[in-house]
Every structure is written in structure tokens, then in C-alpha cells.
Amino acid sequence: MGGGGFSMEPENPLLDQYVVKQARQTKPSVCFLPHATDDAIRYTFKFFKAFTQLDVNPTHLSLFGSEIVDLESFLIEQDIIYVGGGNTKSMMALWREWELDKFLRNAYENGTVLAGVSAGANCWFDQCSTDSLPGQFTVLPCLGIIRGSFCPHYDGETERRPSLHQLLSEDKITSGYAADDGAAVHFIDGEFACAVSSRPHAKVYKVANVDGQIIEEEIETQYLDA
Predict the structure, then answer these.
(1) CB contact at 8 A, 6 and 51
(2) How many angstroms separate the CA atoms of 91 and 160, rounded?
(3) In which band, very low, low, confident or very high, does the pLDDT at 67 lie, cut at 50, 70 and 90?
(4) What residue ranges define each of the domains in the chain, with the CATH number in brackets?
(5) Nearest Cα to Cα of residue 176 among 107, 125, 121
(6) Contact 151, 207 (CB under 8 A)
(7) What stretch of H or E contains 195?
(8) Which of 8, 86, 89, 159 fits a 20 to 30 Å CA distance from 133?
(9) Is the dihedral of CA 121, 169, 132, 68 positive or negative?
């Protein structure tokens, strides 16, 4: 998700409902990872407030004071792992220290649905465009479960589009996808499947540098309330 979900659209559950429908169980376990923020308690409370309204078994994973000994087994047992937004760089550093980068890949290969918003979308790609460092947009290497790059908040923050175009023109970031707030791109087995949105005009785009020209291709995006 480029933006949206319970944290940005608490009165609009369309994207979260869509994520739940992708699970292998009719009443899936959904584990929330709030590791990109320094306000994890409040963020987790919002998650439980939203997901207790859905037909799921919600849980979360804290890396501060958790009583879970075997993190890998815990994550593999989840039907859905949902990662919140925040600082992508800090989250990736924390994950690598705890080996969650390996455990999340293993969960994915075992059939767990991986989802997230903003930083929680960036993390699954080879690279992302991020404002994790104050005052600038930079390129960050991520988990590489999905090939290419990702840019969230494409229409929601004024500098997102021009900064991504600049990074592409300087060959600092690979081609990939950009998503507006309220838009999401769905991959199955690492391959593009479709694009969906919780807002009528939110879109997903393919972006690339082709022979020095920045190409931005709008992908047909299904409005989930249509």
C-alpha cells in the first residue's frame, strides 16, 4: 500500500479487508509488526481496534520485552504479516539484527501473505525511495522478495514524484512501482497480479528510466468499492 489502511483511513477498511481475503484460512491469524515507529504502543492499539472488527485472529510482535522465544516459528505460523509505516531504514536495521529479514522470507515461502503500508510496503522490494533521513529522499536496499523498487505516497507528498524521477534519471534506483495514498499493488509469487484502491482516483504506476527518459505508466487500478 502506498498509503491507507487502518492507520491512515480508519473509517475506510477496504484495503485491509482485501488483504484479509488473500489468506489461506477463512479466519486468518494476522500479525502486526510496528517496528518502523517509535510510537509502537499507540500504533498497535490502532491495529487491534481496526482488526477486531474483522473476522481474524489479530496478534502482534514486539521486539522489546517480547516473551516469544522462537521468532521464526511464530512468524511462519501466521497467515498474514502486516507491517506498519514509519522509518524504513531504522526498521530494516532492527530486523537484520534480530534476523527477521530471514524469518520473513521463510514465512513468505511457506505461504504467509506479506502486506504493509509505506515503510511496510517498501521493505519487500529490492530497493525503495525513502525519506528515512531528514530533509532528503534516498535509495535504500530492502529485503528483495519482490524485484525492482517501490515508492509510496506518490500523490500524498509533494516531493515524492519529482524526487523519484530524479533518482531514476541519475540511475540511483531501479525501475519499479509507485503507489498513491489509498492504492496498493498485489503480487503473487513475486509477479504482478493486479492493483487495487480504497479511493476512487488512487492509482499505481510503473516507473522506469528508458534511454534517459523517465517513463511513468499508469496501471489499471480497481476501486474496491465500485
Answers:
(1) yes
(2) 20
(3) confident
(4) 13-223 (3.40.50.880)
(5) 125
(6) yes
(7) strand 191-197
(8) 8
(9) positive
The string of pLDDT tens digits covering residues 86-101 is 999 999 999 999 999 9
Q: DSSP letter at 25?
A: S
| Set 7, 35, 60, 118: catalytic member | 118
Q: What is the structure's pLDDT at 136?
A: 87
Distance CA 106, CA 112 (A): 9
Query: In which residue are the cell numbers 517480547 written?
Result: 66
Question: Residue 134 pLDDT more than 90?
Answer: no
Cell triple for residue 157? 507528498
Q: Which member of 7, 35, 153, 198 is catalytic?
A: 153
- Close Cβ partners of 21 (under 8 Å, ≥ 6 residues apart): none
Q: Which helix (H) or strand (E) holds 54?
A: none
Instruction: Say whether 197 is catalytic.
Output: no
Residue 163 designated active-site: no
**Three-state DSSP state, 72:** helix
- 62 pLDDT band, cuts 50/70/90, is very high
Confidence of residue 133 (pLDDT cuts 50, 70, 90): confident
